[in-house]
Amino acid sequence: MNLPNKLTVARCVLTFVFLAVLLIDFPFHYGLSLIIFAVASLTDMLDGKIARGRNMVTNLGKFLDPLADKTLTTAAFLGIANELGGMDNLCWAVMIILTREFAVTSARLLAAKEGVVIAASMAGKLKTVMQMVSVMYMLAAMQVGAWQIVSIDVTRWLIYVGLLLVWISVAFTVVSGAQYVWNCRQYFNENK
Predict the structure, then answer these.
(1) Which of 114, 154, 172, 179 could form a disulfide with 127, with the two C-beta atoms 3.0–4.6 Å apart?
(2) Which is nearest to 5 in space by CA: 67, 61, 62?
(3) 104 with 182: CB under 8 angstroms?
(4) Contact in structure between 173 and 97 (CB atoms under 8 Å)
């Protein structure tokens, strides 16, 4: 259990703290959940830099890092959808994201059966960054709305911009998912 893996485990723990803070109604809970989410997201950047920079990349890290990312972003999207009253647009986005994650995880499991560990691709990393940016924007917009310092119409537009960012992240999600499945297609051979 090296430092990068400890940071990844910390991100998993922070996910539960983040979701609890997001869902429990108290003053500034959206802002605090944004800070917790940002710190958890920062651990994603740090664990990778440290692991690659200090030659500490492990199979455990290759497994845990994407799992921690998926857990954090899924918790965020589900929590935001809950707080916004289950917006249909956001529910569809979450469904597409989860379908991609299940497909990629299945492909990785098939590769692992052959002794191959598939690390995150650049497209997968971009997908994660876009998802994290869209979540942070949505949390900030929700906090601005909770403060009631702008009109309801302005708050509504802030949320619409956030939904646009979510759908941009969904596009990255679909592209990277297709890339993973395509790159793992040889493991789908039923003769193996």
Answers:
(1) 172
(2) 61
(3) no
(4) yes
Sign of CA dihedral 75, 77, 83, 88: negative
More confident residue, 65 or 19: 19
Rounded to 5°, angle at Cα 13 from 18 and 101: 80
Global pTM reads 0.86
Asked whether the beta carbons of 188 and 110 are under 8 A apart, the reply is yes
Cβ atoms of 90 and 80 closer than 8 Å: yes
Residues 94-119: tens digit of each pLDDT: 899 999 988 888 887 788 788 877 77
Angle at 2 between CA 56 and CA 113, to 5 degrees: 70
Place of tokens 């986005």: 93
